[in-house]
Amino acid sequence: MNPSGLQLLLLVIGIPAVVVLVVVLATLAPGWTRAGRYRPGEPWNYEPIIINGRAGTDVKAAISVTAAGEFSEGRDLTIAKEGGASARW
Amino acid sequence: MLDGDLVDTAFTTAQLAELERTLMRAGESTGAHFSAYVGKLPARRDSALSIHRQLDDPDMSVLVAVDPESRFVEVVTGAIVRDHLDDQSCRLACLTMTSRFAIGDIAAGIRDGIIVLGDHARSLRVLHTDLPD
To answer: Domains in chain B and their CATH numbers?
Structure first.
């Protein structure tokens, strides 16, 4: 039995359209469920957090000391007793 | 350990648990203490150093400090750890982290960076086991 014009249209356009829709949904859906995820360039409106730090570490106090310019020993890595590295992105 | 209130962080509980596991594992394999800080660093390296000096044993500690808003990362190694984990390895870890940070994946970036730091510190510790040719 030959398919009618409408059936042919469904076969040729409908099935590929459904496949494309499924692929698009599979690609975009994980992003919708992670609505709160941070994106580069957005403001960081979260509390500072230290992981695996000393219990009771007062991060805010440590930061405020440097913000006030009362602590400035780390600018020259060659004379600081601490080592490490810095990077931007 | 985590400091209790996990409500106002950008990370999920699973991400925080994974980060803590990675930090602990790096610490166990190297003998150093690894910590991570995520938040504002107004004076950049000075702020990271100031936090590092608040840790239990700064000379034996490694701190990875990330400021996502200003887009920079600081790795601070203590005076003793520095002998086992050179600045070159820290730069490599920074490179690993920034490639992840650039797509907004802060937690995975820190995790990968800690793994690099742990691997490089450990490899120095086992050099004496290499047999001469």
So the answer is: 13-127 (3.10.310.50)
DSSP A21: H
The pLDDT value given to residue B7 = 44
Inside any domain, residue A24: yes
Please give, rounded to a whole number of angstroms, the shortest distance from the CA of B82 to a CA of chain A.
Answer: 6
Angstrom CA distances, B26 to A89, B22, B31, stand at 25, 6, 8
0.85 surpassed by complex ipTM: no
Q: Give the model confidence (pLDDT) of B67-103 as tens digits.
A: 999 999 999 999 989 888 999 999 999 999 999 999 8
Q: Distance, in angstroms, between A20 CA and closest chain B CA?
A: 26
* Cβ contact A87–B104 (<8 Å): no
SS3 content of chain B, % helix, strand, coil (to 5): 55, 15, 35
Q: What does pTM read for this prediction?
A: 0.73
Give the pLDDT score at A69: 61
Domain assignment present for residue A72? The answer is no
Interface test with A, best of B35, B54, B95, B110 (most A CBs within 10 A): B54
User: Torsions phi, psi of B72, nearest 5?
Assistant: -145, 155
